[in-house]
Design brief:
single chain; alpha+beta; five-stranded antiparallel β-sheet; three-stranded antiparallel β-sheet; 6 helices; about 30% helix; disordered N terminus
Length: about 270
Amino acid sequence: MRRTQLLPYTLIALAATAVLTSSVSAQNPVTERLVQCSLVWKGQEDAIEKFLSEGRIEKMEAVPVGVTKPQRATLEAGGPAMRFAWKPLTPGYSKGYMESYKAEIAAYKLDRMLDLHMVPPIVERAISGKLGAAVLWIENTKGWSIQQPPQGPEPRWSIELTRMKMFDQLIANIDRNQGNLLYDDDWHLFLIDHSRAFTDRKDLKGVAALGRVDRQLWAKMSALTMADLEAGLGTWVGNKEKKALLQRRDKMDQEIKRLVAKRGDSVFYD
């Protein structure tokens, strides 16, 4: 699910979306669903999480992209989810980067805490005795093109991209790249692949800088406390990493104040 790394300071705030529907063809439930909107999990996260955890797997197959070599599981028909990406990334260093399937789950948990609705449902699941992240497979997406980056309706599109950058700074996601940026016809933006996030780094280096700020999202980020993180992220993130997240949030606060001093209240999207 990961492709060529983009330079973080030339990153133009990118996207991930998907489409799923409720009408299922008895012959081919994966490809014959009529689709309208990608944001199918909003309001039914609990049911989807349960199905990702317990739904019967009909088929497992290799995914032809991504350096982490994920697999894709097709679930039994009739449930609130069709497929999931399977990422059994044992916590530890790989190719110079700290990676963990637990970081994937933490990204989804934090997304729910912030009411972003940009990271698809993700749960822990054991397959063949091995633990990993089961990530809802987002259907009917378009890949990101460096040569012709998508341009959605404004100001909504720019706000979505700004929210992505704010989230990446908060979780220290240094791995935002074209392989994990997808979008759909409704211009919903969703974010995938966070296995290298939630480290103990305290600075914002390697993550795209903010140009604008979503005021409502920033209010929620500003209100986060250690108690909130302990309750919301649990053991998916260690205490040292939780403290680092709050320190990065303080760095973001300093940068936002600098932007406001320079450009005034126009920095904020309301």
